[in-house]
Design goal:
The complex is a heterodimer of chains A (251) and B (441). With 251 residues, chain A is an alpha/beta fold. Chain A has helices at 40-48, 72-78, 95-109, 117-130, 135-138, 148-162, 178-190, 231-239, 241-250; strands at 2-11, 14-24, 29-33, 53-62, 65-66, 80-83, 90-94, 141-142, 166-170, 197-202, 215-220, 223-228. In chain A, 41% of the residues are buried. Chain B has ten helices and 21 strands. Chain B has helices at 10-20, 22-25, 32-46, 61-64, 123-128, 132-137, 148-156, 390-397, 403-419, 425-440; strands at residues 4-5, 8-9, 95-100, 103-110, 118-122, 159-165, 175-180, 188-197, 202-210, 218-228, 233-241, 246-256, 261-270, 273-282, 288-295, 302-311, 317-326, 331-340, 348-357, 363-372, 378-386. The chains are: A alpha/beta (251), B alpha/beta (441).
Chain lengths: 251, 441
């Protein structure tokens, strides 16, 4: 589904990703862990197509297409979804109107007929229940005045509505209390199918208690320095990131 | 200023037209003689404001004040033909008022829903009938000595409207004024509208400037005087869609008395040059004004809003929100003054102006001015000019919205803050659609 080869990316002359490679197959959950400044958020931004980042080397192939050639909107339409670390507030734009427009645009891209109003409302209802988000919230403007937990819940709600092939969760656990974390993780788990995949980017292991990864990768200084199964996350939690850096130095 | 063709300036031409039409301009009422003379004198002294005039420095009026313009002194039957209201902007059971070349058109007005308690008529008729309410307001709010366009209008207007709302009456249907030009030649139309709201009355007016691209360059100089007496409430929605080859200056002078409320919403969507002079005098204690504006000049257009809120007495509130979007090489001007006079303690006055530039070719000139002579007041003002928020754009695009859809959604939300002040839903919807069309154009 996704193949990243030797990716180098920089922002404002500073190289952040230095030869990042990763392969994700349908049905898989990959966790990317790493200390601050290792390049986690840059990876998420490059995948989603944020324009401040410049890819200087390497390639990203998504479902056989060169992702780097696609605009952010076309990446979304191809099935990539980024759950933002800091979702922006958009006063005056209701969540309902926003999602209606997003779905219409995505369906048009795929050559599907517009969704019937009734079908849309039915889907809203189902997905709201799935991620335990209230109508009270979805009637409001996008993220305006939302708490940290509400913002993250809204991201997962949008993910549920847009049904992406590949979801990238960028530090979705940051700023969440344990209850909110459980709700968000629960939503992600329920949305998991054999056809879709997720990349979970996180600093801490605790999210991985709820979203169980198939693979754990340690990102350090712009590339993956260690990969393993879910037990690697526990080992990291126990020994800290210093353990990795020491191991690197010793080798 | 002078724009000279064959040695005759427009100013001189208009003054000689004034001399020629002297008797007609009296409107069968000798009481008008002094007013006309002093107005013509004031115009003769001031002339048209040039670019050095502080209040008009951002407007290139020279280009618009062409020699071939001439003031109309009558309305022909032919000019009354083919008049159409903008159906989308009409609200349920509204009272339709047609204004052509500055003249009231009875033929194109529909008063069948006119309730008790309100009079709407030709201003010329009101003057001929020596209506004391009309005559007591005419020229006392909009003073000819204060501005050359007021002076010119006062010297040359032949008609317009007189709207009178009786004490204690709430007028349910909206008054919809459709102001249009039917030019056979280059017109310099002078329209005068008087609104008198007696104590504790309540009225809502929609004033639609409906321009048609006739290909003839025209100039309209509209002066509105509104007296909002004690405890009265008036709402004035001004929608400017002037033609792309004409200019329009609309001066609104409102005087608000104790416990009264004046709400003005200005929506400027189109026109080669549109200038709004909106002057509010909070004349007595405990009254308020609410001013909202949205303007959207596109390629080749100029929309200029000058507002003034004059707090004269204690305990008055005023708030003001003007938002603009400038497309192409369009130009927007916002100049908002708030005066708080020495007497006006416990004033609350707020003003905010925001602008979004959609392209590098656009221009915004914004100047908030606060002059406070009282010491116990709460006042604030702010202005900003920027582009669409790139973070919001990226967020929307990352969900699959095209750049144009994302822009449209953000700009509609931006305009929405002003439009939500319009209480009538069908009118609001119609304006939302119109602004969306402009955004997507």
């Amino acid at each position: 589904m996704l193949k990243i080869n030797n990716l180098h990316a920089r922002v404002e002359e500073k190289e952040i990703l230095k030869g990042f490679s990763l392969e994700v197959k349908p049905g898989e959950v990959h966790a990317i862990m790493g200390p601050n400044g290792s390049g986690k958020s840059t990876l998420a931004s490059v995948l989603a197509g944020r324009e401040d980042y410049e890819v200087t080397e390497g390639e990203i192939i998504f479902e056989g297409k060169d992702l780097l050639e696609l605009s952010p909107e076309d990446r979304a339409r191809e099935g990539i979804f980024l759950a933002f670390q800091y979702p922006v507030e958009i006063p005056g734009v209701s969540i309902t109107n926003f999602l209606k427009t997003a779905i219409a645009e995505q369906r048009e891209y795929k050559g599907l007929p517009p969704m019937e109003a009734r079908e849309f409302l039915q889907m809203m209802k189902e997905k709201k229940e799935l991620v335990e988000i209230s109508t009270n919230l979805t009637n409001r403007s996008v993220n305006e005045g939302f708490s940290g937990g509400e913002k993250k819940r809204n991201e997962i709600f949008q993910m549920a509505m847009l049904n992406p092939k590949l979801s990238i969760l960028d530090e979705t656990d940051s700023g969440l209390d344990i209850d909110a974390l459980r709700v968000v993780a629960n939503g992600v788990n329920k949305l998991k199918t054999p056809e879709n995949a997720s990349i979970v980017i996180t600093h801490y292991q605790r999210l991985l208690d709820y979203i169980v990864p198939d693979f754990v990768h340690v990102l350090y200084n712009g590339r993956i320095v260690k990969s393993g199964g879910k037990e690697l996350a526990l080992e990291l939690e126990e020994k800290g990131y210093d353990w990795i850096t020491k191991e690197l130095v010793n080798n | 200023m002078t724009s000279t063709i064959q040695g005759v300036s427009l100013k001189d031409k208009l003054l000689s037209e004034f001399e020629l039409q002297r008797s007609a301009l009296l409107l069968d009422n000798t009481l008008l003689d002094n007013f006309r003379n002093s107005s013509a004198k004031a115009f003769e002294t001031s002339g048209f404001p040039g670019r050095k005039h502080e209040e008009y420095r951002y407007l290139n009026l020279e280009k618009e004040l062409k020699e071939e313009l001439s003031a109309p002194f009558s309305l022909s039957e032919k000019e009354e033909e083919g008049f159409q209201f903008d159906e989308q902007l009409l609200t349920d059971s509204c009272i339709k008022v047609g204004l052509i070349n500055g003249f009231f058109s009875k033929k194109n007005s529909d008063f069948q829903n006119l309730p008790q308690g309100i009079t709407i008529k030709s201003l010329a008729d009101a003057i001929r009938e020596n209506d004391k309410h009309a005559l007591s307001v005419l020229g006392t709010l909009a003073k000819p000595s204060s501005d050359s366009f007021i002076a010119l209008n006062s010297a040359l207007f032949m008609d317009g409207l007189f709207i009178f709302v009786e004490k204690g009456k709430t007028i349910e249907p909206t008054i919809h004024i459709s102001q249009q030009l039917k030019p056979e030649q280059a017109l310099f139309a002078q329209a005068r509208i008087l609104l008198v709201c007696e104590e504790n009355s309540n009225v809502k007016i929609v004033h639609h400037i409906k321009g048609e691209d006739s290909g003839i360059h025209c100039f309209t100089n509209t002066v509105i005087e509104a007296e909002i007496e004690r405890g009265a409430k008036a709402e004035w929605i001004s929608i400017q869609e002037e033609s792309s080859n004409s200019a329009h200056i609309i001066t609104t002078q409102a005087q608000v008395f104790s416990q009264a409320e004046f709400k003005h919403i200005s929506i400027g969507l189109k026109g080669k040059l549109v200038r709004n002079n909106l002057n509010i005098v909070l004349e007595e204690p405990n009254c308020e004004s609410h001013l909202f504006g949205y303007y959207h000049p596109s390629q080749g257009e100029v929309i200029d809003n000058h507002t003034l809120v004059d707090h004269r007495k204690p305990n008055c509130n005023s708030n003001e929100l003007y938002k603009g979007v400038v497309d192409g090489n369009g130009t927007a001007v916002f100049n908002g003054k708030i005066y708080v006079q020495q007497d006006a303690q416990k004033t609350n006055a707020f003003q905010s102006n925001k602008n979004i530039l959609l392209s590098e070719g656009g221009t915004v000139n914004t100047k908030p001015q606060l002059e406070i002579y009282a010491d116990d007041v709460k006042c604030s003002h702010g202005s900003s000019t920027g582009v669409l928020d790139p973070e919001q754009m990226f967020y929307l695009r990352s969900r699959g919205l095209s750049i144009s859809k994302a822009k449209a959604l953000l700009l509609s939300a931006y305009a929405g803050e002003v439009l939500e002040e319009i209480s009538n839903n069908s009118l609001k919807e119609a304006l939302v659609n119109r602004i969306e069309k402009l955004i997507n154009a």
